[in-house]
Design brief:
It is a single chain. Helix content is about 45%, strand content about 15%. By secondary structure, the protein is α/β, with parallel strands linked by helices. The strands form 3 sheets. A 6-stranded parallel β-sheet has the order 6-9-10-11-12-13. The chain is built from 19 helices and 13 strands. The chain has 2 domains: about 130 residues, Cobalamin-binding domain (Rossmann fold); about 280 residues, pyruvate-formate lyase- activating enzyme, CATH 3.80.30. Helix 4 links the parallel strand 1 and strand 2.
Length: about 450
């Protein structure tokens, strides 16, 4: 789900502005269809969310819509342009402003000024070109009172089709939300703390969280699962325990899943989470190599991850494991260590990705410094079909080697008789799992047939 645009749209809605949130990829929308939709709406301000992998296309769409609506103020947001504002503006002269870091309130303030016919260029958090000169204002402060933000479900109901979003580890349909923003951890590859949300963890109050649960229970009972998308919910275990106790005592039945560091080893707490409706957790394991875990500043040992995995199984909570190939120090031997770790950790579902070097991260800088980054031409970060290219080669381990290794790990893990038997057992135990496995199985089949391409 376009969660950042969801929250920003909700803020603008709450401020009384007429808005339209369009998720073209989810709708499989053509440029022609998008152009017609925007033309009919005739907006005064157009906001584009960008990412490094899609930046060329994102800026092309920005130019297209500016030509279509020449009087509209064009604003580009997201981690890529936030890190490279001048480069982005010079690549796309049709973009009037870049918003640096979090943009919810900056857009709200811009809309208020524009509606009065004013010039927003002096607002905090903006970068822009003036007569060819690059100018940047002071950064806007991060939002401290997250209780002021809308509930994501309210925006999704108004603007999007919740049934158009699938994740292979979530019950369908699901809704994405944040209980907080920011992350204390220092993982060198992770984008969000380094580019948008910062290294502190700002939390919503439990009253705000349960008001959101009230809304879902009373007005959106069709939602089967809440995905808590904080960078990690498991920093504050006392707060997590309080949430679970209050959810149980309040009789809230909705299932929930969350991103976590694999650091929760207290079986009693995990059982409390299970009782409170926690069905699954997304754990960032990253690598099975102790040396790589140190290099990326993961802050968790491989042994701790095994303790976490064992404890979650005892509590009956599913784990979706995230693994990454191509982090600093990767070799054919460390890749095999990661596969063997996956066998020990036994996640219910897993994904293996190639490390993507993103501007603004320590990992990106490390690759450049050591000469491992293939190119800084962002048009090469994706294939014409939209798949991720491998952007680095290491001594003794090429990018093509990494792609093949990633494919082998996924196929070797999922085609084990023990895994398939376990999947059938979970479906028999909870028929709701069938929809999830149906969509995941189709994706896996396409992935296997394509050889990982």
């Amino acid at each position: 789900m376009p969660i950042w645009l969801i929250y920003a749209t909700g803020v603008l809605d709450h401020a009384g502005h007429e808005t339209r949130l369009i998720d073209s990829p989810a709708k499989k929308q053509s440029r022609e269809s998008l152009s017609e939709e925007v033309k009919v709406f005739n907006p005064q301000m157009i906001v584009i969310y960008t990412a490094t992998g899609s930046i060329v296309n994102d800026l092309e769409i920005t130019s297209l819509l500016k030509r279509l609506c020449p009087t509209a103020t064009m604003v580009v947001t997201g981690p890529h342009v936030s890190v490279l504002p001048e480069d982005s503006l010079r690549r796309c002269p049709e973009a009037d402003y870049v918003v640096l870091r979090e943009f919810d309130y900056v857009l709200r303030d811009m809309a208020a000024v524009l509606e009065q016919g004013g010039d927003p260029s002096s607002l905090a958090g903006l970068a822009y070109l003036c007569d060819g000169e690059f100018l940047t204002n002071d950064a806007a402060p991060p939002i401290e009172n997250l209780d002021e933000l809308p509930f994501s479900i309210q925006v999704i109901e108004k603007h999007l089709d919740i049934y158009g979003y699938h994740m292979d580890y979530l019950l369908y349909p699901w809704v994405q939300t944040y209980f907080g923003r920011g992350c204390y951890a220092h993982c060198t590859f992770c984008l969000w703390p380094q580019t948008l949300m910062g290294r502190t963890y700002r939390k919503r109050s439990l009253d705000s969280i349960f008001a959101e649960l009230d809304y879902i229970r009373d007005r959106a009972p069709y939602v089967k699962e809440l995905m808590i998308d904080d960078d990690t919910l498991s920093f504050d275990l006392k707060r997590l325990e309080e949430f679970c106790q209050r959810k149980i005592s309040g009789g809230y039945k909705i299932n929930w899943s969350a991103n976590v560091r694999p650091n929760i080893v207290d079986v009693d707490l995990l059982r409390l989470m299970k009782k409170a409706g926690c069905r699954a957790m997304v754990a960032g394991y990253e690598s099975g190599s102790p040396e790589i875990l140190k290099r990326i500043k993961k802050g968790i040992t491989a042994e701790r991850m095994v303790e976490f995995a064992d404890a979650t199984r005892k509590a009956g909570i599913q784990v979706h494991g995230d693994f990454i190939i191509g982090l600093p120090g990767e070799t054919p031997e460390t890749i095999e260590e990661t596969f063997q770790a996956a066998l020990r950790l036994k996640p219910a579902t897993m994904q293996v990705s190639i490390a993507l070097p993103l501007p603004g991260t320590e990992f990106y800088d490390w690759l450049k410094t050591n000469g491992y980054l293939k190119t800084e031409d962002f048009s090469q970060f994706l294939t014409p079909e939209g798949a991720q290219n491998v952007m680095m080669d290491y001594p003794g381990l090429s990018g093509e080697d990494m792609k093949k290794a990633m494919h082998r790990i996924v196929v070797r893990y999922y085609l084990r008789p023990g895994y398939m038997a376990g999947a059938l057992w979970r479906i028999a135990k909870d028929p709701r799992e069938a929809i999830k496995f149906w969509h995941a199985g189709r994706q896996f089949l396409r992935y296997t047939v394509s050889g990982g391409n």
